[in-house]
Amino acid sequence: MMAVQQSATSDFLVSLGQTLSKPRAIVVFSAHFDEAHDIVITSGDAPQTIHDFYNFPKPLYEIQYPAPGDPKLANTISEYFYKAGIKAVQSAKQGWDHGVWIPLRLMYPAANIPIVQVSINTRLGTKAMYKYGQLLAPLRSDNVLIIGSGGISHNLREIFKSPATPNRVQMVNEFTHWVEQKLITQNTQALLNYLNEAPNALFNHPTAEHFLPLFAALGSGDGQVEKIHKDIEMDILALDAYKFY
User: Is the Metal-binding keyword given for this protein (predicted)?
Assistant: First the structure.
């Protein structure tokens, strides 16, 4: 809903787009592009805007984000994976899911920065996503912004649960605090093993797709991490943001 409603996070994203140096291109790992087999890389010149959600207000379905693709960058990314012995395929038909266009429309409303999406894979887990980020890290020196688009906590079922789980707010706070501390102290191994080490891991992420983009972004950095935004909506949906140097 932040696409059509002002919130602390929508204001943050607008401000972020105004303060970051303008990238020449953007690579996005989105929670909503989860592929079971091959890595899929968008390679179209003008991918369509996908409205991949249901039962929301009509204005959301009318929004278009006509940012261009970047076939040349897609090919470069494919080569990075190929050289690492990882199969990747390019898709000229895949469009921008809402994990891409909702934040980027706020950050860069002119829609004039080329985008490439790289799929995640919840079956492979954290270490694979971290490696994906490491493989793409050289792109940063070419002024390519790498984004992990998901959520620090994402338990939609709990939003509609009645009665609510006791102490659910505390459970989210404990998890998000743990994530923050491990990121800031650069304890990557603990993060990679979050399912066994983090408090309330499965409550905060009953499924992993909204957490895995974090690991791709983390892998693309050089180690230093800064927390740049904190927000919780509906008591338990944490929308914190981190910057990786």
Answer: yes
Strand duo 237-238 + 144-149: pairing: unpaired
Q: Comparing C-alpha atoms, which of 61, 44, 43 is closest to residue 52?
A: 61
In this prediction, residue 187 has a pLDDT band, given cuts at 50, 70 and 90, of very high
The pTM for the full model equals 0.95
Tokens of 122: 């919840």
Residue 117 phi, psi (nearest 5):
-100, 140
Measured CA to CA, the distance from residue 135 to residue 77 in angstroms comes to 9
| pLDDT tier at 196, thresholds 50, 70, 90 | very high
Distance separating alpha carbons of residues 33 and 187, to the nearest angstrom = 27
Q: What is the 3-state secondary structure (H, E, C) of 61-97?
A: HCCCCCCCECHHHHHHHHHHHHHCCCCEEEECCCCEC
Beta carbons within 10 angstroms of residue 232's beta carbon: 18
Helix (H) or strand (E) holding 178: helix 168-184
CB atoms within 10 A of CB 38: 14
β-strands 144-149, 225-229: how paired? unpaired
From residue 25, alpha-carbon distances to 67, 199, 231 in Å are 10, 36, 27
- Please state the φ and ψ torsions of residue 107, each to the nearest 5 degrees: -75, -45
